[in-house]
């Protein structure tokens, strides 16, 4: 009896656990698929080519911002300044072009540098000043938003044509989607195929162990925040490209969307876990919810309720998985 | 705690010094006030061109009237505004012009001012449930009706309309929305097919309008409760703006007027923010001189379209 049963049981169990593992690893993707299916049934406007492109465009700003944030969260930090850094980078870039009358390419490079520099300053404060990243980036949030208002004097500024190009079209493909894909590939390569990427996981997994094994923890921290700032800057340029101007109040509250995207995508705020592909899916989930509820003409108040519940469920699943993990 | 004599003496000296400097400060303040009155302009935000223009108008009028005007920005946070008004009251301001973050919450924060007989004038937004001296504001309900007329005219009095609403709960959004609903109801061939909030924000309006246009491809008119959202909708429409779809905004900001000149926006209902600021300061000046003023002072709004836009852009 046991001879017959023995070989089949482990096989079933193995298959079962493989399905379970897939679901656990790709919970957000499955969620996105279910969400898409529900909206496809609910409204004929959802699954159309133009609407799918819309979703891609609308996800681009948050996703690019969240890619950078993924590095920080993998390294067990948090960056609350990404929205404000995006706004400052966009405003700085527009200022370089409109007020300082410098060429458009310099406006793009300058904008990106402002972001990377803001991030690096946060990184130094965390790595060498021993500030908790929550505090360092909260301070940076305030400083960068303030500087944005100083630069703009509270008014929108026209942006460089090179930046507007980022919000336009490349033939039939919208540029924001091109930027989204390129930024995603670059971020994934950094995280998965470079030594620095390995270090990020090591620092996030166990900082002390990483330090003892010779990982240059401080350099890693400065790098992750600088990268976060750089990606935030790119997101800011993308947003101002879409709006054809840099807005003083641009991207207010986007840091929460970006954090939500990373967390829905399966990264752990405890560090050491997270993937760029997951973050992309997380951003898409947020945008699809908003898009779908707009199409159904549901009030934006309910959208906030729904998004809140999705975040709670995503993190709940994540912590259950961690608890049940075999190792 | 036990003090030694020298320490006691030190404490006493410091306290006395503080007390003297405090009275000296007060006297100095009073003397300064004789020459020119001081007033506080408490704005909900300076994060918006509209309020920047309002401030500029107020500052110009204050200079003319010889009022020393201090401008504080609450950054859209009611609690911050409450603190700022408390500071203003204790720093001996002679009068306050408030642009409430929240009309209901502002009542509590102006109460201490009223108790101390400091005159309070509200500008642009009302203070609910407090005995303030005067409200200087645009007639938003009338403006909403004017917007409906302008949009109907641009659409040939027929078709489908999307409404982009402002921050829920603000009187500006409520009044403009009510006026628009009233006005548009008079055109039987126009149907409002969707209403969503985009929180007075351009980026949000871009996304929301894009989404709504997916669900309602036959729309030929969009009313946005401010110009920022109208500009977002125009961005969402692309080449269809001004040709297939008429957009009407509200506020008459610089960029809104530029969009009318460019032909992408059909009309905007221009408030005159600088005029609002100017009138508010003038009213406060009258109050400080002991005159009585009207409880509500309406500042006219005007429909700006391609025909008269030249008069507003100089």
Automatic annotation (TrEMBL), chain A:
GO cellular component: plasma membrane
Membrane topology: Multi-pass membrane protein
Localization of this protein: Cell membrane
Record bears the keyword Thylakoid: no
Pfam families according to UniProt: BPD_transp_2
Protein name: Ribose transport system permease protein
Keywords: Cell inner membrane, Cell membrane, Membrane, Transmembrane, Transmembrane helix, Transport
Organism from which the protein derives: Arthrobacter pigmenti
Origin superkingdom: Bacteria
TM region(s), chain numbering: 22-43, 55-73, 80-98, 104-127, 134-152, 172-193, 220-239, 259-289, 301-320
Molecular function in Gene Ontology: transmembrane transporter activity
TrEMBL record, chain B:
UniProt superkingdom: Bacteria
Entry keyword set: Signal
Cellular localisation: Cell envelope
GO molecular function: carbohydrate binding
GO cellular component: cell envelope
Residue span, Periplasmic binding protein domain: 42-291
Keyword Hydrolase: no
Leader sequence segment: 1-24
InterPro entries, A to Z: Peripla_BP_I, SBP_2_dom
Homology family: Belongs to the bacterial solute-binding protein 2 family.
PANTHER family for this protein: D-ALLOSE-BINDING PERIPLASMIC PROTEIN-RELATED
Protein name, per record: Ribose transport system substrate-binding protein
Provenance organism: Arthrobacter pigmenti
């Amino acid at each position: 009896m046991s001879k017959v049963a023995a070989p089949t049981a482990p096989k079933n169990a193995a298959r079962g656990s493989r399905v379970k593992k897939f679901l656990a690893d790709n919970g957000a993707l499955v969620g996105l698929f279910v969400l898409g299916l529900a909206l496809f049934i609910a409204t004929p406007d959802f699954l159309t080519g133009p609407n799918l492109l819309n979703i891609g465009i609308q996800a681009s700003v948050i996703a690019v911002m969240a890619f950078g944030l993924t590095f920080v969260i993998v390294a067990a930090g948090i960056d609350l300044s990404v929205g404000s850094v995006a706004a400052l980078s966009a405003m700085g870039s527009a200022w370089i072009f409109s007020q300082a009358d410098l060429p458009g390419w310099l406006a793009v490079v300058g904008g990106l540098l402002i972001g990377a520099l803001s991030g690096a300053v946060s990184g130094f404060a965390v790595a060498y000043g021993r500030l908790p990243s929550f505090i360092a980036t909260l301070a940076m949030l305030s400083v960068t938003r303030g500087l944005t208002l100083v630069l703009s004097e509270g008014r929108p500024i026209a942006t460089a044509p090179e930046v507007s190009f980022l919000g336009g079209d490349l033939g039939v493909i919208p540029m924001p989607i091109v930027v989204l894909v390129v930024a995603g590939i670059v971020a994934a390569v950094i995280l998965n195929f470079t030594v620095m990427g390995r270090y990020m996981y090591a620092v996030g997994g166990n900082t002390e162990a990483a330090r003892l094994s010779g990982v240059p923890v401080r350099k890693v921290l400065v790098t992750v925040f600088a990268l976060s700032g750089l990606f935030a800057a790119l997101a800011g340029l993308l947003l101002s490209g879409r709006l054809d101007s840099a807005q003083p109040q641009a991207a207010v509250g986007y840091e929460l969307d970006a954090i939500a995207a990373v967390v829905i995508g399966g990264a752990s705020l405890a560090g050491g876990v997270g993937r760029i592909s997951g973050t992309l899916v997380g951003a898409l989930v947020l945008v699809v919810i908003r898009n779908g509820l707009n199409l159904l003409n549901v009030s934006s108040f309910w959208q906030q309720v729904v998004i809140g519940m999705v975040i709670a469920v995503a993190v709940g699943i994540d912590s259950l998985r961690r608890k049940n993990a075999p190792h | 705690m036990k003090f030694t004599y020298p320490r006691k003496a030190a404490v006493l000296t410091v306290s006395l010094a503080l007390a003297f400097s405090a009275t000296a400060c007060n006297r100095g303040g009073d003397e300064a006030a004789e020459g020119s009155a001081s007033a506080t302009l408490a704005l909900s935000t300076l994060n918006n061109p509209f309020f920047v223009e309002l401030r500029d108008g107020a500052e110009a009028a204050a200079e003319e009237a010889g009022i020393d005007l201090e401008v504080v920005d609450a950054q859209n946070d009611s609690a911050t505004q409450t603190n700022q008004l408390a500071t203003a009251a204790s720093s001996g301001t002679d009068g306050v012009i408030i642009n409430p973050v929240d009309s209901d919450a502002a009542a509590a924060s102006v109460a201490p001012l009223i108790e101390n007989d400091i005159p309070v004038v509200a500008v642009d937004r009302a203070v609910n449930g407090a005995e303030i001296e005067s409200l200087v504001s645009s007639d938003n309900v009338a403006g909403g009706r004017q917007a409906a007329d302008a949009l109907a005219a641009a659409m040939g009095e027929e078709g489908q309309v999307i409404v982009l609403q402002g921050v829920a709960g603000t009187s500006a959004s409520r009044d403009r929305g009510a006026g628009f609903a009233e006005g548009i109801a008079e055109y039987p061939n126009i149907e409002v097919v969707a209403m969503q909030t985009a929180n007075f924000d351009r980026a949000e309006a871009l996304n929301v309008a894009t989404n709504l246009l997916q669900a309602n491809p036959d729309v030929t008119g969009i009313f946005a409760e401010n110009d920022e959202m109208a500009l977002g909708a125009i961005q969402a429409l692309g080449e269809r703006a001004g040709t297939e779809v008429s957009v009407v905004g509200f506020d008459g900001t610089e960029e809104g007027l530029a969009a009318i000149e460019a032909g992408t926006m059909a009309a905007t209902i221009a408030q005159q923010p600088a005029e609002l600021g100017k009138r508010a300061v003038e009213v406060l000046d009258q109050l400080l001189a002991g005159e009585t003023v009207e409880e509500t002072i309406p500042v006219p709004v005007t429909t700006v379209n391609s025909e008269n836009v030249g008069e507003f852009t100089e």
